Write a sequence for this structure.
């Protein structure tokens, strides 16, 4: 019952298509507070949740290293699982999670809401329509200010709980968007630094990604910045798109005088992924981010971690071998 549990629960309330039946956390105080806030029952154990016949699916917000144990138990109990990214800390756990859900015949949906945001959906449509021509390059930045906000007792800020630090915690959002827009990543060259935050985990990361189609992209991720910002620029032979948190999306076609703003309504990406999960659990189309896709996404970050540690270019295939 961490802060992200509330984010997802608030989205469930906004949706109205899902109902929170019960909750469990090892902390009695946390589960009681959550149950009061969201008007649901309280389970005294995780087993009690899994034995509850009115529960169809689990929203799993446990620490990364508990994903396998908790998801496999849910799958054995016949419960569908929405698991927040990353799927796991290791490729072995990611594969075991995927296999457990497949064997049990339950839906596994992994939370990657950033790719669903309206600017990226719009760019993807233009890419699919051939408007960009050949994609050649992209650059992304995902930055947040965590100075003074770090709890070193939290698994999120420990090397054991969040390998690669900022790269795995938030960088993975934009490596996913880069793959979504530009194509699969085949190799990574990365550097990590710890500059501002206390503890044992990197707070700055820089990656160069090599895509299957030959394009190159870069990602910078930071927890040491003075402010929050998100940037995603996509460059093609015939057009380019520029997005940032503060100016929105702009688009420039070859020969145009300058970029034009693209007016887009802000969508509720978290509600959309939860409703997709619910529909899949009821027999609808499968989720966009499956266990297999989430494992491939994790492999990009794992390649970056090896690259930063060993100072060399690392292929994704090597990590998946």
């Amino acid at each position: 019952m961490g802060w992200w549990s509330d984010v997802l629960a608030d989205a469930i309330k906004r949706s109205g298509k899902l109902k929170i039946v019960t909750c469990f956390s090892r902390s009695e105080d946390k589960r009681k507070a959550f149950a009061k806030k969201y008007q649901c029952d309280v389970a005294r154990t995780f087993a009690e949740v899994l034995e509850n016949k009115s529960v169809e699916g689990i929203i799993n917000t446990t620490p990364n290293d508990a994903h396998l144990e908790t998801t496999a138990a849910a799958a054995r109990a016949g419960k569908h699982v929405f698991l927040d990214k990353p799927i796991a800390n290791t490729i072995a756990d990611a594969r075991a999670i995927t296999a457990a859900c497949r064997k049990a015949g339950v839906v596994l949906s992994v939370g990657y809401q950033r790719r669903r945001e309206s600017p990226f959906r719009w760019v993807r449509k233009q890419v699919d329509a051939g408007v960009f021509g050949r994609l050649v390059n992209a650059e992304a930045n995902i930055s947040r200010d965590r100075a003074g906000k770090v709890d070193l007792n939290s698994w999120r800020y420990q090397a054991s709980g969040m390998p690669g630090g900022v790269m795995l915690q938030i960088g993975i959002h934009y490596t996913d968007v880069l793959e979504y827009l530009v194509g699969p990543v085949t190799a990574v060259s990365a550097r990590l630094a710890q500059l501002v935050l206390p503890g044992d985990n990197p707070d700055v990361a820089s990656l160069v990604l090599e895509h299957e189609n030959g394009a190159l992209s870069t990602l910078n991720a930071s927890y040491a910045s003075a402010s929050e910002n998100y940037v995603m620029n996509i460059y093609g032979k015939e057009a380019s798109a520029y997005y940032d948190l503060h100016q929105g999306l702009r688009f420039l076609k070859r020969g145009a005088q300058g970029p034009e703003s693209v007016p887009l309504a802000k969508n509720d990406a978290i509600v959309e992924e939860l409703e997709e999960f619910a529909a899949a659990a009821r027999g609808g189309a499968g989720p966009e981010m499956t266990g297999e896709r989430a494992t491939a996404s994790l492999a990009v970050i794992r390649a970056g971690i090896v690259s930063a540690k060993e100072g060399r270019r690392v292929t994704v295939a090597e990590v998946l071998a």
Remarks:
- The first strand starts at residue 22 and ends at 23.
- The CA atoms of residues 188 and 209 lie 5 Å apart.
- The chain has a mean pLDDT of 95.
- The chain is about 35% helix and 25% strand.
